[in-house]
Design brief:
Length: 282
């Protein structure tokens, strides 16, 4: 199948934002019941809105990690199979660490997990072994969860010193096997996010601990972008947290998968991998 890269520059689609629980209780996603339960339990409400999403192919340079909170690059990976987690850790992790250090100028990059997503249109299940695209606007971390990650994944002897310097959490996301023709990833330009009004911490209840992510309230100012038919040799760095809060630097990027109305009939289903990094600077 050949797909022209000259499709319209903007699509209109529905995104799922956040509304708080009606009873005023603190919002949560409960995934403690594990894979068998299928969908996570949650107490917050969905808020669906039609938005425009701009295809920025051809002007990828208009967004950077420090301005918009995300940045596209073309860099092939040597590992291409992504069928076996142990192999991914042995082969894809080391090359990704070198790559993110090169692309960001960081002095140290530590991977704390990865997620492979394959769309399965006939299944609602979204368990750890069968992750699907995420059709909800979110940010993967909060300040509390980012700091907790440093303590969890780095030696106690290193963590305090690392926390005194600039650190970030960044996801390295790329399609697997073929371009992401369908259910691509939309990213929201940080310059259009009102961090105080739009971002809401939501507890993530695991069986053994609590984490925290951010859900996002609708704001008509949000400017959404994507890279249409993004290829396996392309990647996007998605900033989930930055400790540099003093000068307008992008702190994070709301993002979501979406149904692209310009996807050709019969396009193969999206597969992707995202690797999550703690990123440190000297
Ligand atoms: C992510 C993410 C969702 C998707 O990479 O953090 O939310 O649909 N991905 O790929
Ligand atoms: Fe995410």
């Amino acid at each position: 199948m050949t797909v022209p890269q000259d499709a319209p520059s903007t699509v209109t689609t529905e995104l799922v934002y956040y509304l708080p629980p009606l009873d005023g209780s603190a919002p949560y996603n409960d995934i403690s019941a594990g894979p068998a339960s299928g969908q996570p339990q949650r107490n917050w409400r969905e808020d669906r809105h039609q938005v425009e999403i701009e295809n920025i192919r051809g002007k990828e340079d208009s967004v950077t990690l420090d301005t918009a909170g995300f940045q596209f690059f073309r860099r092939a990976a040597t590992h291409k199979a992504f069928t076996n987690d142990a192999e991914v850790e042995r082969e894809y992790y080391p090359e990704s660490i070198e790559l993110i250090k090169e692309l960001t100028g960081a002095s140290r990059a530590v991977i704390f997990d990865h997620t492979i997503r394959r769309r399965r249109p006939d299944e609602t299940e979204d368990s750890p072994q069968k992750r699907q695209p995420v059709p909800q606007v979110h940010v993967d971390q909060t300040t509390a969860s980012a700091v907790a990650r440093v303590h969890r994944h780095l030696p106690p002897s290193d963590a305090p010193a690392l926390l005194r310097r600039r650190f970030q959490i960044i996801n390295l996301w790329r399609p697997i096997g073929k371009p992401a023709y369908e259910w691509p990833l939309a990213l929201c330009d940080f310059r259009t996010v009102d961090t105080k009004a739009d971002l809401v911490p939501v507890t993530l209840k695991y069986a053994d601990r609590n984490g925290e992510i951010m859900n996002v309230k609708y704001n008509p100012s949000h400017k959404w972008k994507y890279l249409k038919n993004m290829e396996p040799d392309e990647l996007v760095l998605i900033k989930c947290f930055d400790s540099k809060t003093d000068d307008g630097t992008a702190l994070c990027t709301p993002h979501t998968a979406f149904s692209d109305p310009t996807t050709p009939e019969g396009a193969p289903l999206r597969e992707s991998i995202e690797v999550r990094f703690l990123v440190f600077y000297d």
